[in-house]
């Protein structure tokens, strides 16, 4: 954020403003996985199908990924205070719409509104927080800010599960409204701003074509299974939007000097390879959560409060290892930590392949904690490797692109695992049910079985098929990390900053 875009108060006012900005950061990250532990309640209340439940996460992620690159331009064009307050109001509207939703599409629409606000709040909260700090404290604040983001992601399912269990699922969104009003009032009273002297330029063509491509791909993945893929005109339109948007974007990047992504970023080997690894990290970071909570809640029948609590070991490992790495790892070669983080994440996903319907809580807690530690080691180390060799002039643009790739990794990752989950569930259901034939002794009694008994048997088979499908998705996430692991060998050794 430009220093001349915002004037900040001093002393207590600065601390209050920074607290409000960090609270907004926590809220916008916690709201992403907030419904995770209460999907069964939400689906039952809104008559939502399993594939529509996946849209709860992809709608929020996709909308935030679209507005994330626009946040700085909007702040420079209209003023930080105005844009920030507008984003808070939009978040409140999205929260209220979620509580008032009576159909799946209304709820997904509310999540899109929340995601639009989230994409703006994240980077502007960072800028406001930095402006309230003395210059000497700013370089180390990035780790604090990221820790708050991770804390929100880690505790969101727990908070949502507890509120849903005792106060109904709508209460999780009601609870955020007074906090949002508090943030709005603090910003209104304490944040002063200066309008930018010149209107900042922006590559709307590059941004538009890239966004068109990503929206087309996202919709294709989300809607393809329901519409029987390319038998549907809508899927063809979405596929064309993806291909055309990506083609125009690539041509634009190759043929213009100033555009949405600075080509100079692509000349730094460490930055490019680290961005690919960070994209893979985004795939695993939220996809695991999007699989684990429904597995516990819907398939194994845990209550929402228990489902939420079982995500805490992963969150504790993630936040704890991230903080330790941010403080004490600078004296060592960061590539070693990158390799160690990837290995731990892959190992944790391998442990998840051993989940069983007969297990207790301990395998989930142990595997989650190991994966959280691995992610907490990987995130700061890969960030340091990415920016250590990058020209300081390119770091602001690089930071935006780096985080954008993680966001798209998360939204596409959730869409892909949801897609394969439904396909594999159907395939496994057919494979298991094919053994129930009149020629098998175990199936003889089914010939005269009453309809409720047959329905119960079908439900049991569906549950078994769904559980096997979940394990298959953990295997995909493990493969994703293994595929990017060789890239560590090609990373250059970071320059020591000591």
From TrEMBL:
Entries under InterPro entries matching the protein: EmrB-like, MFS, MFS_dom, MFS_trans_sf, Sugar_transporter_CS
Intracellular or extracellular location(s): Cell membrane
Domain Major facilitator superfamily (MFS) profile, chain residue ranges per copy: 17-496
Gene3D superfamilies, per the entry: MFS general substrate transporter like domains
UniProt membrane topology term: Multi-pass membrane protein
UniProt keyword terms in alphabetical order: Cell membrane, Membrane, Transmembrane, Transmembrane helix, Transport
UniProt keyword Hydrolase present: no
Record field: transmembrane: 55-75, 82-102, 108-129, 141-160, 172-192, 204-221, 233-250, 271-293, 305-324, 336-355, 361-379, 400-422, 466-491
UniProt similarity note: Belongs to the major facilitator superfamily. EmrB family.
Protein name: MFS transporter, DHA2 family, multidrug resistance protein
Annotated organism of origin: Pseudomonas mohnii
Classification lineage: Bacteria, Pseudomonadati, Pseudomonadota, Gammaproteobacteria, Pseudomonadales
